[in-house]
Amino acid sequence: MSIRVRLFTVLLLMTGVVWLSACVWIYASTKERLEHVLDARLVESAKMVSSLVGDRPVMAGFTGEATSSGSGLEAEPMEAPSYERQLACQIWSVSGKLLSKSDSAPVASLSDHATGFQNTTINGAAWRVYAVIKPDLGVRVLVGDSLQVRDRLVDDVIKGLLYPAILIMPLMVGLIWLSVSKGLAPLARLAASLTARDASQLHPFVDRSTASELRPMIRALNSLLSRVQSAREREQEFITYAAHELKTPLAGLKTQAQVAIRSTDPEVQRQALKRIEQSVDRTSRMARQLIDLAAVEAVESVARPEQMVDVSALILDVAHDLEFLQKSRGVQVIYAPRHRARPISIAADASLLRLAIRNIMENAVQHAPCGSVVECITQATDGKLSVIVSDEGPGISVDEQEKVLQRFYRSPRSMPGGSGLGLAIVKMSIERLGGTLRFGGPAPRFHVRLEV
Questions:
Q1: Are both 363 and 259 inside the same structural domain?
Q2: Would you say 105 and 144 are in contact if contact means Cβ atoms under 8 Å apart?
Q3: Whole-angstrom Cα distance, residue 37 to residue 39?
Q4: What Cα–Cα distance (Å) separates residue 176 from each residue in 2, 12, 40, 182, 282?
Q5: Which of 53, 55, 390, 401 has its CA 20 to 30 A from that of 247?
Q6: How far apart are the first and last CA of the chain?
Q7: What are the residues whose beta carbons fall under 8 Å from the beta carbon of 252, sequence distance 6 or more?
Q8: In terms of domain of life, where is this protein from (predicted)?
Q9: 371-398: per-residue pLDDT in tens?
């Protein structure tokens, strides 16, 4: 169901409930007030008739066939309007003899009570009767009001209020629909603006002239567009760099292959094949790091469950993977856990932790001098795990420690063949693990500390 239809339905239902509640309240209030007014009229009528009886004597022996005017003639039947003959009046002697009555009054006594109000039923008709006694004259005056006529009066008043409301109901429905459409117009304009944009238009929306209710959504959209723009820029930078970096070793591979094919000197061929091997290693490492970088970035948008990771086993596995590199560089990796009595395990994303440790250790092996040792130490303090990798390489100057964490940055002192992605991958992995990356340590060794 659309928001427009939902709002329209809710407003229509709420308006209907309020309208029905108002009708019930008006009916009850009007009926109560009318009954109060009609009761007051009964009292006034009874007192008026009583005063007239006191001024004019009533003939005794009246059979009840005469009219209240004393002429003895019955009024001619006629089509009475809705509220004619509502009141009926009877004058009775104290001894129970009917002395006089109005044309609309029945022959039977309207009520047997002495004074005050009483509801009675005569010949199937309900009456509201007020009685007053004139002790000095020995008469009792009864004035009755037809409850049927009362109810019809209340119903007619309510109908007079309801009929106009029912007639304007279609107009009210149309106004509600128009109001909802008008209220949702800014949302429709925003949707139209989004639809009109192409994939390259990622500039933010201006929310100064929009409705205040839409501003949080526009700010969220602008934040999303900013992230998409940043991701696109990184992607374009990634593609440009990857294309350039892959082009260079591939061109070198082709050149060295041509040299090996054309030369008849075994030494020249051996050197060409060695350079081909180095180019393949460099290309393979860069391709792996590009894949690692894409994997780390994917973690930002896809939730991955944590698991208990045996850090010691993970480090030994990474060192085993780097065994060929250690031999080619003449470097040895030594793992020295501070707590040998028990293994160190933490709850983390194993793939991210592996990427961080591998790139740190690989970077250390690449830059350590031949015949040196790369030492890896683990220690757990205050609920945190620290992985410290140290080597005897040139290290990273304080001025460059922020720059080396950027993608594709290469230090002038770094070894040739690097891609500039290793420490960037470490930084992204550690941040997603909620940890920190630090550089430093006492000379002559350079330390890289991972804290998770």
A1: no
A2: yes
A3: 5
A4: 16, 7, 44, 10, 70
A5: 401
A6: 47
A7: 275, 279
A8: Bacteria
A9: 888 888 888 777 778 888 888 888 777 7
